[in-house]
Design a protein that fits this description.
Oligomer: single chain
Distance between the termini: 48 Å
Radius of gyration: 16 Å
Shape: flat
Number of helices: 0
Structural class: mainly beta
Strand order of the largest sheet: 6-5-8-9
CATH architecture of the domain at 39-127: Sandwich
Order of helices and strands: EEEEEEEEEE
Largest sheet: 4 strands, antiparallel
Number of strands: 10
């Protein structure tokens, strides 16, 4: 194995894994998720930087959701990798939660944006708001 990268190549909310080899065949492990009866919810963010870099490298996304009756915070940081590049769209598993109560985006520029009561099972595009 040479490298491995996570990404949701079919945009179904279930992360897939690509494994690259220097010898032998590369492999894509497709997570079929809901086709196997998985009813868990998810949300994914596509970030567009304006004051920060366009790909939002260095941004942190935090979400709060009530899953199984308990409140959880999850964090994803957008970053590069060596020999591979994971999906730049942070993906959050939400279990039985049908919404994200709070989504907080901390941009590399220092700008912070918050969204409330965001429906699950979608790819949400967020553009960085420049402060005036």
């Amino acid at each position: 194995m040479w490298s491995a990268a996570w990404g949701d190549y079919d945009n179904d909310g279930f992360p897939d894994l690509f494994v690259g080899h220097t010898t032998g065949q590369n492999a894509l492990y497709h997570n079929v998720g809901s086709a196997n009866g998985n009813t868990n919810h998810w949300i994914k963010f596509k970030l567009n930087g304006t004051a920060s870099n366009r790909l939002a490298i260095g941004a942190k996304v935090r979400v709060r959701a009530t899953i199984g009756g308990k409140t959880f915070w999850q964090l994803r940081e957008i970053s590069g990798g060596q020999w591979c590049q994971n999906d730049l769209r942070p993906n959050f598993g939400l279990g039985d939660a049908t919404k994200v109560e709070v989504a907080r985006i901390e941009w590399p520029s220092g700008i912070v944006q918050e969204l409330y009561d965001v429906a699950a099972n979608q790819i949400l595009t967020i553009t960085e708001h420049q402060e005036l």
